[in-house]
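Re: [ENG-882] Designed sequences occasionally contain unexpected residues at chain ends

Forwarding the minimal case from QA. Structure tokens:
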């Protein structure tokens, strides 16, 4: 009786191990069913606190504008650092990648101004024309480097770009790589997905970060 029980233990442990392995694909799948938006991040990454994220993006949470923004704009962010912080979205380049996803409605004025170049310059001065204008004002970034500029046509009334580039927030910060996907829909919504980390981080983790960027999906089916 005892000998049979001892023999059964490894089988039970093996089945438990296999069950855990098969059920853990190594990713956290993030979605907004309302916005039909999906992406994945490694399971080891941590979600950034929603309240802290909202405060950085929308300002004082007691203001009427911030409360309206929180109701109509969907945002979520994940951090590869052991101690996630919203400051990693805005601070100096880090060797720990951080991801931000956002969906918001466009105003009528914004819908009339949406172009591929407008989407490219959302969040940064990257097109030749915009950089020339910045240079005339003495604010250009000499460290800027294009790594990727791709036009996206996923269908369903969506159009946009995926851009990857190096820049330097300030002369002593080192290079920051930004991987940004921006889509606009015919029904007046903006979909934004940003990955940022140091240039060294992005180069050494390129395959992993590219897979995360490509996982960003909007099922905007009419």
């Amino acid at each position: 009786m005892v000998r049979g029980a001892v023999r059964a233990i490894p089988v039970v442990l093996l089945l438990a191990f296999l069950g855990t392995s098969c059920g853990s694909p190594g990713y956290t799948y993030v979605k907004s069913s309302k916005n039909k938006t999906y992406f994945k991040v490694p399971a080891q990454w941590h979600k950034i606190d929603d309240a802290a994220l909202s405060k950085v993006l929308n300002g004082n949470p007691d203001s009427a504008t911030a409360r309206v923004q929180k109701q109509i704009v969907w945002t979520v962010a994940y951090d590869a650092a052991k101690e996630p912080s919203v400051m990693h979205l805005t601070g100096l380049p880090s060797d720990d990648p951080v991801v931000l996803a956002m969906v918001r409605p466009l105003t009528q004025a914004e819908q009339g101004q949406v172009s591929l170049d407008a989407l490219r310059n959302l969040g940064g001065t990257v097109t030749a024309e915009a950089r020339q204008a910045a240079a005339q004002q003495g604010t250009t970034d000499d460290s800027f480097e294009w790594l990727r500029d791709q036009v996206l046509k996923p269908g369903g009334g969506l159009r946009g770009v995926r851009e990857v580039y190096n820049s330097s927030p300030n002369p002593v910060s080192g290079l920051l790589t930004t991987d940004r996907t921006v889509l606009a829909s015919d029904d007046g919504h903006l979909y934004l997905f940003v990955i940022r980390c140091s240039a060294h981080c992005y180069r050494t983790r390129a395959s992993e970060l590219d897979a995360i960027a490509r996982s960003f999906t909007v099922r905007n089916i009419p």
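QA comment: On inspection the terminal residues look reasonable. The chain has a mean pLDDT of 84. Proposing we downgrade this to a documentation issue.
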